[in-house]
Amino acid sequence: MSRRALRRLRGEQRGQEPIGPSALQFDLRDDDDAEEEGPKPELGVRRPGGAGKEGVRVNNRFELINIDDLEDDPGVNGERSGCALTDTAARGNKGRARRGNTESKTDGDVAGTAPPEQENVLEDIDRILERIEDSTGLNHPGPAPLSSRKHILYVEHRHLNPDTELKRYFGARAVLGEQSCPHACSRHTLPEHSPLPGLSMRLLESKKGLSFFAFEHSEEYQQAQHKFLVAVESMEPNNIVVLLQTSPYHVDSLLQLSDACRFQEDQEMARDLVERALYSMECAFHPLFSLTSGACRLDYRRPENRSFYLALYKQMSFLEKRGCPRTALEYCKLILSLEPDEDPLCMLLLIDHLALRARNYEYLIRLFQEWEAHRNLSQLPNFAFSVPLAYFLLSQQTDLPEHERSSAREKASLLIQQALTMFPGVLLPLLESCSVRPDITVSSHSFFGPNAEISQPPALSQLVSLYLGRSHFLWKEPATMSWLEENVRAVLQTVDAGDPVVEACENRRKVLYQRAPRNIHRHVILSEIKEAVAALPPDVTTQSVMGFDPLPPSDTIYSYVRPERLSPVSHGNTIALFFRSLLPNYTVEGERPEEGVAGGLNRNQGLNRLMLAVRDMMANFHLNDLEAPHEDDVDGEGEWD
Q1: Long-range contact set of residues 243-250: C-beta below 8 Å, sequence gap at least 24
Q2: Could you tell me the pTM of the whole model?
């Protein structure tokens, strides 16, 4: 039976266990898998009451990411959210203190020896206890109670472990071989309770089923943060290395060096530094903070919270490049769940891509059905094309009943024709990216011709470039291209017939895509997709862009202020400033000291010097003086929400 059921029978709650060193990895020996997957959505069925919801008014649909009506939606704000992890730790503390640590060890033993009949009985008792909790109406901080359907942003913890996905692809032997490699991630060597002074998390408030948290820096950590900013501006990489020697878990320093290692193509070192940063922040988690429930919030306007966003994003990028799109999808959902209203890193421009790569078509369809009414997802080119592609790929699955496959194919054709009518400038660049030569009747037609791409507003061109640079290879399959060609011809017939919908879409393009929100620009910078970066507006490319805090919000909430000092980084183009923020000794032509002068280093020498310093620091980084792991947790069976 599940440990959760045993805890509930004893009166215990999640959130009371000591936080372990797993750094977003989980032990997979629990038997909770039966609860992880919610029911598959019926094809073509919209969320009840979604389309007819009153009080929702969008003046500029292009700014859909900043719509503030999610609090009124019970499917989004966490009320009856269906999260499987109930992090209400307010009860059971006294009982746990009396039992001590020995009972948690017994818990693992019972979980491995319970017979199937007893397991079924106790699972029934677990469901009864949950219904009793629902009927009491008690308002505890933390996520909302369990329901039959998971929250759309609920993170499945068993999919947060990339080894699970790699085992499905390559087998357990290959994964075990990688873990035994001396260059493999050293996450598991970290102690459970290492001293990380100064970094903590505070619960700000709980309302409407949501809990709002914030990271906090002590005075000691603030001093380290000030030293980090000075080190970045000093153009001397050893200053950051020296800072890490005195503060080995300073988050921004770890992320900064990770980017430098990544540019040097040392992926293992870069990933290890990001995981150390995540571990540092994990140790500071509040007991009620849950990564998986989808009901815990972190305000991006607070600088202390931004490091967690960026660390998760970088880890997600490593996972995707490593060939773990299913795990990366869960990280994407996690980032989006931290602030879904504002979506500061604009994960809605990426989540469809990861869902398609992970072949999780049902999730993408469900997200579109539930959020389209109030987030206008169809106004984003990536959703406009990815959702019909998901329907089409679903219709190709032979294990589905024939009527479901037929329904999915019809829905796919309807949506792709709407997408082509709304965004005709996508077709020819998509075909070019897929190395497909279009038919002469298509390329010469005024609707899909070169003018369709040229006449797009700049903000729309940026979104199209981002989507094609990231997802064009998903369309290369011959069956997909044949289906696309079929619908392109259908759209041309509609255009030639003078359908008024065509003119209406043209007018909407001119009105809706005048300017992209700041979070989209931030996403483009983080994506590093060159076609999209090249399309950034001049007001973004001419300002300073720091790798550890790209495009900070204009309404930042400061909890402390850095002492005033003149910053040497005050001019230059975006690329130079970005590299300077990552590589402190990077300089551009005209600024570089002459060779032979003290401090005169060319760029390659600076990169090599930085990498040697980082490797030397990591090689000599010892954990002997830190607290050793508890013997009770040697098997790594601790759970973490």
Answers
A1: 244/617, 245/617, 248/276, 248/621, 249/194, 249/196, 249/199, 249/276, 249/277, 249/279, 249/280, 250/221, 250/224, 250/225, 250/280
A2: 0.68
